[in-house]
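SEVERITY: medium
COMPONENT: batch folding queue
REPORTER: lab tech (J.R.)

DESCRIPTION
The queue accepted two submissions in a row. Attaching both inputs and their returned C-alpha cells so the on-call engineer can compare them side by side.

ATTACHMENT 1
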Amino acid sequence: MREIYEKAVSVAIPHSVDLWCHYCTFVSDRSDDVEEVRRLFERGLEIVGTDYVAHPLWDKYLGFEMAKSNWKRAYAIFLRILHIPLEHISSYWERFKVFLNSKPLQDMITDQEAAQMDAEKVDSLEKRKAWVLADKEKVYFKTLAQTNLRRLFETEVLKVNYFHVRSLGEEQLNNWLRYLEFEEAQGDYQRVVKLYERCLIPCCNYIKFWLKYVRYVETL
C-alpha cells in the first residue's frame, strides 16, 4: 500500500492536500520512526503547505507533535502557519493563543526569542507571554491581510478544484486567469508556480493555461 501512495504523490497527483493527508496518516499510524514520519510531513508541506486549503495537513502535523508533547516543535509549526495565507488562519491564531497560555513557555520559544526578551529586560512569565503574543500578532495581521486579498479568488476556485470531463464555466476560467495575474504581480516565484500547478489540475485541457505557464517560466 505504501508503494501505491508513493507513486501517487510522486507521479500521479503530487499537488493534492487530501492525498498527502492520507499518506502521512497511513505512515504515522504504522511507523515507530518519528523522524521518518516528520520527513514525510515535510515533503508534503513543501509541495502543498502554502495552498489556501492546506489546513488538514497542517492539522495532522500539529496533532502528531502534540501527541508526543513536543511543545517546541508544535510552537515552531504554529509560527510557520502564521506566515501562510490559509483559509483558516484566524482559527489558527486563536488556537495559538490557547496553546501559548497552556504550555510551559520555556519549552516552546526559540533561543533567539529568549535572548531578545532578556535584552529587553522582559522578566516575568506573564510579561514574556505578552511579548510573544504581541510579536506574533503582528505576523498574524499581516498574513490575514494577504489571506483576504486571495479570499474572493479562492471562493471561486474551490467550487471546482479537481479535474472533471465537463468544461469549466467562463467565470471560473476568468477567475483562474485573474488569480494567476494577481500572484504574478506579487512577485513570489514559489507561490506563482504552486498556483499554476493547482490551476493545471482542473484546467489541464485548456491550452491557454499551459502556454501562460510556459511564458511565465521563460520570463524568469
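ATTACHMENT 2
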Amino acid sequence: FVMNTPEEIRQAYRDYRAGRFA
C-alpha cells in the first residue's frame, strides 16, 4: 500500500472494499 494523503487512502480503501465485497 502506498502512503498517500488521507483522502487518497480513503478513496483507495473504498475502492478496495467495493471490489472485494461488491
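NOTES FROM REPORTER
The longest helix spans residues 6-21.
No errors were logged for either attachment.
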